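hi!! sorry for the late reply, been swamped w classes. u asked for the two structures so here they r. pasted raw, havent cleaned anything up. first the sequence of the first protein and right below it the C-alpha cells
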Amino acid sequence: MAFATAITLFLQGCAGWQSALDPKGPAASELAWLIWFFTGLCAVVWVLVMAALAVPLLMRSRQHAEPLALDAGADSRKLRVVMIAVGLTAVILVGLTLLSFFANRTLAAIGSDAALTIRVTGHQWWWEVRYEDATPSRILTTANEIHIPAGEPVRLLLTSTDVIHSFWVPSLSGKLDLIPGRMNVLDIKADKPGIYRGQCAEFCGAQHANMGTFIIAEPRAKFDAWWNDQLQPAAAPTSDEAKAGGELFLKRPCVMCHKIGGTPAGGTVAPDLTHVASRQTLAAGTLTMSRGNLAAWIADPQGVKPGSHMPVVDLSGDELNAIVAYLEGLK
C-alpha cells in the first residue's frame, strides 16, 4: 500500500501545465513517447549489465590445479559473450538514432500547412509577440502571452535582440533557441483549448527564472474575436482619475519605452501596453494581473524583478493610483 502511494505521488510530477510528460499536442506527444522509450530501454540495459556483473561475483570460481593452464573453451565462450554484447550495443545505438531521425521528421511535418505565423522575439526578460498578416493593418504586436487557435498548426519564428534565449512550452513542443541575428522555426499545435505555461530554457541573466510565457489555445471563433479586439486602439479613459492617469503617462518616462495604440505613446523597447489589462500576468509571468500587483510593479520594479530594465519612476501616491486606474482600463 505504501509503495503504491509513493508511486502515485511520484507520477503526479509527470502532469501539469508545464510537463513534457503530459503532452497536449502532436509534437509533445512524439517527444514524450521518445522519452519513455529511451528511459525504458536504458532501464532494461542497466538491469542486464548489473545481472552480468552479479553472476560471476556470486558464482564460486573453480579451483584449477594449474593456474597458468589455458582453457580454450572458456576463452571462446567469453569472447562470444563480449561480441554479442558489442553487437547488441551497436544495434541499440543504430535503432535509437533511427527513432530520433523519424521523430524529427514527424516534428518537421507538423507546421507544413500552418496558416498562422507568429514572430517571437526574446528580450531580457520578456517576450515580444508579433502576429504576421498579409494585410499590414492586421499585424498585431503584444507581449508575453501567445493566443493560438486550438487544433491548428502554428509556426513560430524565433529570434532575440540581446542574448541567447530558449523557448520551451513542454506540454506542446520541444525547446528551441532564440539567437540574435538568426531566425529559428518552431511549429506547435494544441490539441484542445487550454493554457500552457512556457519558460526561457537558456540561462540569460539575473531574471532568467522569471521569464515565463503562456500559450492560450482557444476555439477559432474565440481566437479571431480576440485578434480583432487586440487590433483596436486603447480604450479612452472614462473616470476623472483614469483621465488624469493617461495624461501623466504621456508626461512621464513611461512614454519613451512603451506603446499604447491610439495615443502619442510609441515606444518600442518595452512591452506594448495597448491592452495590457487583458493579460493574465505582469512582468512575463512574475505577477498575476491585479490592481495591487500593477501598482507594485510600477512603484518598485526593481523590488519585484531585480535587474529588469524598467526604471523606478518618482510618483506620488495619487499619481501612482491615477496611472494604475488608467492602465487597468486598457482591456
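now the second protein. again sequence first, C-alpha cells right under
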Amino acid sequence: MNTIAVNSSYLLMCLNMLLCYALLGEQLEGLSMEKKLTGTQLGAFTVGKLIGDGGMGSVYLATHPERSDPLAIKVLLPQYAEDSEFRARFIREGQVLSELSHPNIIPVYFFGEDRGLLYFVMRYVSGKSLYELLLSRRFTPIAAWQILKPVAEALDYAHERSIIHRDIKPANILIEVQRVDGKLHNQVFLADFGLSKVLTWTALTTTGVSVGTPQYMSPEQVMDYPLTPASDVYSLAVVVYEMLLGRLPFYAKKPDQLAFRHIDTPPPAPSALHPEFPKPLEAVLLRALLKEPERRYQRAGDFAQAYAEAARQVGRERCAMQYYVGEPRHIR
C-alpha cells in the first residue's frame, strides 16, 4: 500500500491539535447567538433575519439602499477581528476573492469591518444545501453528475486563478431552483470561497491546525502539506462517494482517528459495499481518492470528464439506478 510518509510524533501533535480545534468549534458554536445583529447597520448594509449560525459566525439576510437583489451577510465571531494580521489579510484576500465571477460560485460583493466585526456580503441563495438533500433523498449516478459537473467547473475556474477552496463538503454546495425560459432549473452554487484561504492561514499561525472538515479533508491537508487542485479533487470525490452510496468512505469516533483514516486506510471499494455498483464508476472514484495527490486527477474537470465517460460506458439504465447502502450499522 502506498501512503504519504510521515513523522509519527509530528503527526500525533497535529492530530491532537485538530481534535482540540474541533472541540473548540463546538464550544463556540452558540456564542454568536448571544448578540443578535438584526436591525443594526454594518457599513452601508442593514442586517436582517438570522438564517444560519455556526462555529465561525452567523449568516443574516441583508439589504442595501442601492440594491434590490437578495443579499446575505456573514459576520465572523469577534475574536477574529482582534488579530490585526488576520484582519489585514482578511481584507486583502477579500479583494481578490470578490473578483471571482462564475455562475456556479456564490458571488461575494464586499468584505469589510465595522465596530470590531469582520463581515462579507454575498448573493443570497434561496435553496437547500447538498447536506440537507442527503438527509432526505438518494442519488443515482445521473443525479450525482448534476452536482459534480457544475462544482467541478467552479473549482477549475478558481484553480486557474491559484485559489484552492480547502473545504469542499455538502454543506458548502447549494442548490437553488430557478426558472429559465419558462422551465424550472436547478442552479448549483459552491459557497465559502471567501473564508477558506484566510481561515487556513490564521489557524496555522495560531494553532498549527489546518482548517477543513475531517470527513472530507485530503491526506495532505491533514498533514499540513502544500495543497494543490488535486486536494479539492479528493474532497469532491468524497462528496460524490457519499452521494452515490449514502455513506462516507471513513468513519471514526474522534476527529484525529478520522484523520488517520484519510492518511493510511484505503477507502472501501463501492462494489464491496454494493455488489452491483458499476466497476467503471468505481475506478474513477478510487483514483480520485488516492492518497498521493500526484496520482489523482489533477483537475476537477478531469475527474468530471472521467466520470462522464465511465457513465457512458455503464449505460443510462444502470446510471438511473440507486446504489445506496447507508451508514454502517454501528454509526446509526
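hope this helps!! also noticed smth abt the second:
Residues 1-34, 201-210 have pLDDT under 50 and may be disordered.
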